[in-house]
Amino acid sequence: MNAHSSSSSSNNERIVRIGGASGFWGDSSVGAPQLVASGQIDYLVFDYLAELTMSILAGARLKKPELGYATDFVSVAMKAVLEDVVQQGIRVVSNAGGVNPQGCADALAALAAEQSIALKIAVVSGDDVSALLPQLRQQQPPVRELQSGAPLPERVLTANAYLGARPIQAALDAGAQVVITGRCVDSAVTLGVLMHEFGWQPGDHDLLAAGSLAGHIIECGCQATGGLHTDWDTVPDWPNIGYPIVECSADGRFVVTKPAGTGGKVTPAVVGEQMLYEIGDPSAYLLPDVVADFTQVRIEQAGEHRVRVHGARGRAPTASYKVCATYAEGFKTAAQLTIVGFDAVAKARRTGEAILARTRTLFARQGFESYSGTQLEVLGAESCYGPHAQALQTREAVLRLAVTHPRKEALELFAREVAPAGTSWAPGTTGAGGRPSVSPSIRQYAFLLDKSKVEARVSLDGQCIEMPRDAVVAAVADAPSPRHAAGDANAAASAAADAIEVPLIRLAWARSGDKGDTSNVGVIARHPALLPLLREQLTEARVAEWLAHLVEGTVTRYEVPGIGAFNFVGEQALGGGGMASLRNDPLGKGMGQILLAMPMRVGAALLALAEAGPKPLDTPP
């Protein structure tokens, strides 16, 4: 039975249940069938699009005009569940359209026809702003990249505005069973559902913030049900981990859960980690529909694998859309070798240095300039920990060399000079495999664009749906975000006579994420009594020093008092960002783990609270 079919017609009593089946293009195929088979959902939403994904899809469309969308959405996910989705009355929203949402809709319509299923499919477009680029190049003041301030590149591959939830709401209002969008913010696929179901309007800022938070929690799939959890060893049954479900009320409150009988776990700590994932200032999370404030959100256990979330606040959105453009700049490749035996780390480093030295000499003979960028890492030797790496007597290490160059021929020469290490230098060299491939170096360029220049379009079965023109009202400037709360009388507890040094992981949970070349690390105290100690010792200056080998820019600390947490935002932290970075960890996934190794001084009583509970978020206040 459909979850809300038996509930009261009153919005105040009705619950809308939404399952998040995908966190990225490449997520497991088990999500959609699992959620549909559970009988616990009214809507199925999919998030597929990352910045790199958009450039990959653009390349696919150039080679074959009917492509340019996330093909797995049709050929894998919907093929597996389409009949059941229609029979159960489940409606579907997905941003699988990529750079060709109509092509995605056509492919889904063909699948439905093959299965003799009548299906009303809506398409949301208008996010592609490539046609505006010539005009933008002439405007004053000139377009500037949000983080670096760089001018607009000459050769842009894609340029897509992050649309909001209103077009999705309009499509569902018109009766669409499936809504396919191009680029929209990840949380919009959920917010659009809730705006449709509860009649939320553009001025309902608190509700829009709450719905956006619900979408943010489930937009990364199993990260809301125990995936990437700091206490990973407490998360049961990884192979059968459940995908997330949010049960939402008209007042903006929602419960996070998962299908019955699945693996994983849903606790306030798990949900809290995901709330802080990939955000900047938690009091001003900028979205097309609302500026959300998560600082006073409360997260409480509401039963086994059930977590209640409430307290999001919102204010008017800005007058701009964020646009993500991609462009090509030179070429890149990466190669790996395994080194076995005594002094494996030293042998690996010398091997990498030798390859770079030899190829630079060969470049000069060919008349090539030197590399535009290089990255030498020894995996297994804690390279990512920089000066905090522990001395390891490992007898197996992986050399990783990533390089960029303006000319493809230079990197093809590099690729040929990797395998010769297997007979020329260090004993125990193996694992070369085939020659590494050379590809264009795709980079991200983000900028702001006045909303008046972008027109979202909605069509249902080929017929245009009229979109209401909302008044654009810029958010009013607010007081500075809570960065440094006043001192606490209990802070001296960190200097207790019996204080010992422990890694931060014994006192807190943490998760890190990325936005361009910025990385954030959300840190949640394991017990409220630890907050003064963390505030005292986990300062901006100390975190910046600990991560200095990775973060070149400033580090800003924000407080999130509702869940007893801090959010650290580091600029120029990812070697140029996900697509441009040469690092083995271009998205900063390990940044939180590295911070959790920071030594902290704590007295025995506080340490006992951290390790024995009660956990700070597991019990309602």
TrEMBL record:
Pfam families, sorted: AtuA, AtuA_ferredoxin
Membrane-spanning ranges: none
Acyclic terpene utilisation N-terminal domain residues: 16-459
AtuA-like ferredoxin-fold domain residues: 502-600
Full protein name: Terpene utilization protein AtuA
Organism of this sequence: Variovorax paradoxus
Lineage: Bacteria, Pseudomonadati, Pseudomonadota, Betaproteobacteria, Burkholderiales
